[in-house]
Design goal:
The chain crosses the membrane at residues 26-47, 59-79, 95-117. With 129 residues, this protein is mostly helical. It is built from five helices and no strands. 71% of the residues lie in helices and 0% in strands. The model has no long low-confidence stretch (mean pLDDT 89).
């Protein structure tokens, strides 16, 4: 899994710390986070809050932003902690850049989940589009 997510993330992300991210298995965990967090966010919105009062942009946007922000924070703070424990020190901007790339993929995954899950609900069929 580490190799698959490394190739996927390195399509956009190239840095000095890519080899260290791979060696410390951070790509694998970040890849799972960038898939699981938006899928769970969309599942919670479309199936946990399947009520007429949540139809529209506001509730969907809140769910979207919370999912992406959660992914951003996990993929920013966790690698920074793991690399620090391994004795590797990089600039904070490197971690923010890495986290931004994983968040971009999370946006794509959340949008795909939106188009898939909304047709399986009764009240949120037209939310947000």
């Amino acid at each position: 899994m580490n190799g698959f997510f490394a190739k996927m993330i390195e399509l956009i992300y190239s840095s000095q710390m890519t080899n260290d991210l791979y060696d410390n298995n951070i790509y694998g965990v970040a890849g799972l986070v960038m898939i699981l967090v938006p899928v769970l966010g969309a599942l919670i919105f479309y199936f946990g809050f399947d009520k007429a009062r949540y139809v529209g942009w506001k509730a969907w946007a809140l769910s979207f932003l919370l999912s992406i922000l959660t992914c951003f924070l996990i993929c920013w703070l966790w690698p920074q902690s793991a690399m620090g424990k391994a004795g590797l020190d990089y600039a904070s901007s490197e971690y923010v850049y890495f986290s931004a790339i994983t968040s971009i993929y999370s946006v794509i995954i959340f949008m795909i989940c939106t188009f898939v899950f909304r047709f399986r609900t009764t009240n949120l069929l037209h939310s947000p589009f």
